[in-house]
Amino acid sequence: MIESPQFPPLFSGEAVTRHTDPFDKAVSRAIAGVDSGTIFYSESSDTLRAALVLAPETPLEEAIQAVYVAQIGLAESLGALAPPEVPVYFQWPDRIKVNGAVCGGVRFATDVSDPQAHPNWLVIGIEVPFLPSGDEPGENPNQTCLYFEGCGEITPMALLESWSKHTLLWLTYYMDSGFQRVHDEWRPRCDTLGKMIEQPRPGVFVGLDEKGRMLLREGVMTETVSLIEFAERA
Q: 3-state class of 123 per DSSP?
């Protein structure tokens, strides 16, 4: 029997049925007016799927920065539970990498698309594979799971608990200190920073600006790319 995870103050949890996507459930409940801080999660043993509902009090261009907070929370929780030699990095905008291969990521949705509009809700979901989906090790070197990376002792519910605690901690830092502290923590964990990338568009990933937008340089031109472009629509 899977033990129910314990969440920190200000957060609460609600398990979804076996065939329900926690992210879809979180979006539907957010539209209906569920409390901010509610985490919907699946009790699957092979993949952690969970989604946090937030009620931002800022325009979307600021509220979307919470996606970086959730990524840091996931990286720190993996760092706390995984063996010390297992490196965890980000691939902008939404992938988590373990030992250089993609190992899940985040997704997010909100009810507005205008950067200056105030969203009623923001849902941030995470997905982390614990067991292989059928591929043998090495068949797809760009994809991995925690089992292949020596993290077989970690359980999805333990990671969910840890993610909720680290995410709440960093949300507190973010609300107290603004985006700069989040940026300073996120930046060293991004393994494509300063490199030529092809997605979302070709160019050199220079960094993030003060609003958390990607700075992408192509030739002498530098453009910004916002996380808002990758938000799912309800």
A: strand
Please give the Cα distance from 147 to 129 (Å, whole number).
9
Tokens at 39, concatenated: 């985490």
The answer to pTM > 0.70 is yes
Phi-psi group of 188: left, alpha or beta (phi > 0 → left; psi -120 to 50 → alpha; rest → beta): alpha
Cα distances from 67 to residues 13, 124, 174, 203, 233, in angstroms, run 19, 7, 11, 23, 15
Q: Over 70: is that where the pLDDT of 182 sits?
A: yes
For the chain, give the longest Cα–Cα distance. 58
Q: Which segments within 42-100 are labelled E, that is strand? A: 47-54, 88-91, 95-98
Of 128, 169, 126, the residue nearest 149 (C-alpha): 128
Cβ-based neighbour number of residue 29 at 10 Å: 18
C-alpha–C-alpha distance, residues 193 and 85, integer Å: 22
Q: For 25-56, how does the pLDDT look when each residue is reduced to its tens digit (9 = 90+)?
A: 999 999 999 999 999 999 999 999 999 999 99
CATH number for the domain whose boundaries are 12-192: 3.30.930.10
Confidence of residue 115 (pLDDT cuts 50, 70, 90): very high
Q: Parse the chain into domains and list their residue ranges.
A: 12-192
Interstrand relation of 38-41 and 47-54 (parallel, antiparallel or unpaired): antiparallel
Cα separation, 114 vs 195, in Å, equals 30
Please provide the average confidence, as pLDDT, over all residues in the chain. Answer: 94
Of the candidates 181, 192, 183, 232, the one whose C-alpha atom is nearest the C-alpha of residue 212 is 183
